[in-house]
Write a structure and sequence with these properties.
It is built from 30 helices and no strands. The protein starts with 13 loop residues before the first helix and ends in a 20-residue tail after the last helix. The N terminus and C terminus are likely disordered.
């Protein structure tokens, strides 16, 4: 890891990044090819059950399937044959249906890609709404108080599959505004795009809203305001300055929806690529699973290269020349309401947990099925008559503990791989589009179904947002003027790492990790719902949501308690972070001297004297 180079020297060597992409893609395809043999289940038995679930397998039938599919040749022979057919436009035939694979994958990819574009539009719109207030006040030099980001945290904590069920019930069934199922016409895309885009937009908007005050605090912004530049002009350039650091989050947040929106695709009955990959993995149907995985890998690499090109275009020559101004957030006082919000969330969450611990979470009463909230059952009962408050309280420690462990491990892995940009760039692009469900199947094949096996699966793909953010922030920090000044003064690698790089990266990455904490809970829940993680009847918040999701229309209170607990946990984490950095400013020894030696504004050659120049131009 190099920490002393800047400008053009900080770009990852292209051949190393390309080699990492090839190596990561090859490793993933090899792991997928080994899935039937790693699981310990006879592939012939799984394929026979997928073809005819009611048929009792006999030794003769299993032997016929092994001979038909050449299973005795082993996984690597199948992988070589499959790769050899790709240059000819052949991806084999499905082991279950016997139909050609390529038309299935092409059709599913077209559906998922269209859905991703719709979700991207919603993401951009929601992100714009989240940071609109900061843009408006910052461009007018009226930022007086820092925002805690509780609104973005609430939207980001909404479970996508629960939001999808609610939209399908209210807007599709009750009101009849849009189709609640199927994929016919542009109207069918509206509800699933909203379900996927609202939480993603809140995530992106929250990160952007936290970065904008630092851009408005730069010398060029103050100078432009004094020169009488329009507020819209200042806001656009501040957005351009901060967008470069947030743009890499689109790769793991939005692009991954092509393969990761399995639950939403099932709720709306959408024939997407994620659903195809999951069904193929469950049936151990290798040809469509390998082809879908290859498409996801190529999509991740293409999206990563596109995002990198957009970042360089936004930052301009300043990134190449090492003349990029550093972002220093102003020491704005926190709103008093932030303390009250954090206190309310802590008290409410503690009250729910303590009250639930005093009840029996496993007591089944079939005569009390789906009862609404009452004095006897404050949060109601589930489909088996179990008290939801008891299950919520007993699952709190396990849910929060596993989610925190997964988030901490993912953050650490992301930091390390983000700092090793030459190796981590290709690996991040490949892993970002890998569905967590597929990672869960690969992990469970080795470890067996367990909560820690599911945690390992989430860690396999959960580090990508932090690696992408770390790499982007480090690239900008290495190209800053004060970094080059420290190098010219003889600063070593340890000093640069301790006083420049880590202070520039850690606060933003930790805020991102806390904002994504409910996401870790929901991904663990989806794996448990598929039998890959926490097994019933263990009470766990995500499992409560998954188990009671079919009863949203009939008994909405069955999911209200776990959803509110997730929102309280997310808001508490974000508010606590905001209070923790209250009145603080990033500072390193000697940085004030270095910043004063850098010009506040620069003039474009040939322009009138004193005319400000936008950052990155």
């Amino acid at each position: 890891m190099s920490v002393t180079s800047g400008g053009a020297d900080t770009r990852p060597v292209r051949w190393r990044a390309g080699a990492s992409r090839v190596a990561a893609g090859t490793a993933l395809l090899t792991a997928v090819a080994l899935l039937p043999w790693l699981s310990g289940t006879d592939p012939a038995l799984t394929v026979l059950r997928a073809r005819s679930a009611d048929q009792d397998p006999t030794p003769g039938q299993l032997a016929a399937i092994r001979e038909q599919l050449s299973l005795d040749e082993g996984p690597f022979t199948h992988l070589v044959h499959w790769l050899g057919g790709l240059p000819r436009g052949e991806a084999g035939t499905s082991w279950v249906s016997g139909e050609p694979v390529l038309p299935q994958v092409t059709s599913a990819f077209a559906v998922s890609f269209t859905l991703m574009l719709g979700a991207l539009v919603v993401t951009i719109a929601v992100a714009a709404l989240v940071c609109a207030r900061t843009l408006h006040l910052g461009s007018r030099r009226r930022l007086r108080q820092a925002r805690a980001g509780t609104g973005a945290a609430v939207l980001a904590a909404l479970p996508k599959f629960l939001l999808a069920s609610l939209l399908a019930t209210v807007c599709g069934v009750w009101l009849g505004w849009f189709p609640s199922s199927g994929w016919e016409g542009p109207q069918a895309m509206v509800l699933p795009a909203l379900a996927l885009g609202i939480p993603s937009g809140a995530m992106i908007g929250g990160l952007l809203d936290q970065s904008l005050p630092a851009a408005f605090n730069e010398p060029w912004a103050r100078t432009w305001h004094a020169f009488g530049f329009s507020t819209g002009h200042i806001a656009r350039h501040a957005l351009r300055r901060t967008l470069a650091g947030v743009l890499p989050q689109l790769l793991p947040t939005v692009v991954a929806l092509v393969g990761g929106a399995v639950a939403v695709e099932k709720i709306f009955n959408i024939p997407g690529l994620g659903r195809l990959a999951l069904d193929s993995a469950v049936a151990q149907d290798l040809p469509p699973l390998q082809t879908a995985t290859l498409v996801l890998v190529l999509l991740g690499i293409a999206a990563g290269l596109l995002i990198q090109a957009l970042r360089h275009a936004l930052l301009g020559p300043a990134l190449r020349d090492g003349a990029l101004p550093a972002l220093h957030p102003p020491a704005l006082p926190r709103q008093r309401v932030t303390l009250w919000v954090a206190g309310f969330c802590a008290v409410a969450l503690l009250a729910l947990v303590v009250s639930g611990l005093l009840r029996d979470p496993l007591h089944v009463d079939t005569a009390a099925r789906l009862l609404p909230p009452s004095t006897a059952h404050p949060l109601g009962t589930d489909a088996l008559g179990r008290d939801l408050l008891a299950r919520l309280g007993h699952g709190a420690v396990r849910t929060a503990g596993v989610a925190l462990a997964v988030s901490a491990a993912s953050t650490l892995i992301g930091l390390l791989l983000g700092m090793a940009a030459q190796v981590g760039a290709g690996l991040t692009e490949v892993a970002a589009t890998l569905p967590a469900v597929l990672a869960g199947l690969l992990t469970t094949a080795v470890t067996g179904p367990s909560v820690w096996g599911a945690a390992c699966a989430v860690c396999l793909v959960g580090w990508t947002p932090y690696a992408a953010q770390t790499a982007a922030l480090l690239e900008q920090e290495r190209a800053s003027g004060h970094m080059l000044a420290s190098i010219s003064f003889g600063a070593g690698r340890r000093y640069l790492l301790r006083h420049h790089l880590l202070p520039a990266v850690l606060p933003a990455v930790l805020r991102n990790a806390l904002l994504r904490l409910p996401t870790a809970v929901l991904v663990l829940a989806s794996l448990g719902f598929l039998g890959l993680g926490e097994q019933p009847p263990t009470p766990e918040w995500g499992r409560l949501l998954s188990e009671n999701q079919p009863y949203v229309e009939l008994a909405p209170w069955t999911v209200l308690g776990p959803a509110c607990a997730l929102v309280l946990l997310s808001v508490l984490a974000v508010s606590g972070t905001a209070l923790g950095r209250r009145g603080t400013r990033r500072h390193t020894p000697g940085r004030g001297t270095e910043r004063r030696r850098l010009p506040a504004v620069r003039s474009r050659p040939g322009s009138p004297p004193g005319r400000p120049r936008a950052p990155g131009k």
